Amino acid sequence: MNGQRKNLVVRRYIWRFSASMTLYVAFLCLAVSEFRRGHPTGAVAYLLAVLPSIPIIGTIASVGLYLAEEKDEFQRTVLVQSMLWGIGATLAATSVWGFLENFVAVRHMEPFLVYPMFCFFVGIFTPMLKARYR
After folding, report:
1. In this structure, are residues 117 and 90 in contact, taking their beta carbons and an 8 Å threshold?
2. Could you tell me if 9 and 69 are in contact, meaning their C-beta atoms sit under 8 angstroms apart?
3. How far apart are CA 116 and CA 121, in angstroms?
């Protein structure tokens, strides 16, 4: 039963995360397409500009739900530690880049890249932490 519960929790997490990312791609494509061809203005422009961020909020919620549902303390601990290391690495990288932007001629980093950067770092730290505990 415990293995079935774990699989169910993981499957729900994967489904929620995948659904959110599918909506993200669809909403991003819609927004880019509309801004390239239609040049929307007013409330429609604001709605289209914000639309891709809504599924990102869904991915964050799916992680929170997973942490609430996961009963395996090891799995929760690894994810929480991975996220903490990911936050730290993201804060360090964006701080360094911000100072580079202020003092030398480097390209501006768009704020919408911060969340993918965080996910990248979490993806790096998760297997490292799992290996640490083996």
Report:
1. yes
2. yes
3. 9
The helix/strand/coil state of 93 is helix
Taking only the tens place, the pLDDT of each residue in 23-68 is 999 999 999 999 999 889 999 999 999 999 999 999 999 999 999 9
Residue with tokens 């061809």: 37
Same domain, yes or no: 23 and 58: yes
Burial status of residue 29 (CB atoms within 10 A of its CB: 0-12, 13-18, 19 or more): exposed
Domain ranges, residue 12: 1-69
Classify 62 as helix, strand or coil.
helix
Let me know whether 115 and 134 are in one domain.
Answer: yes
Token pair belonging to 3: 């293995």
Asked if 108 and 47 sit in the same domain, the reply is: no
98: amino acid identity, one letter? G
pTM here is 0.84
Domain shared by 79 and 125, yes or no: yes
Would you state the pLDDT for residue 6?
Answer: 64
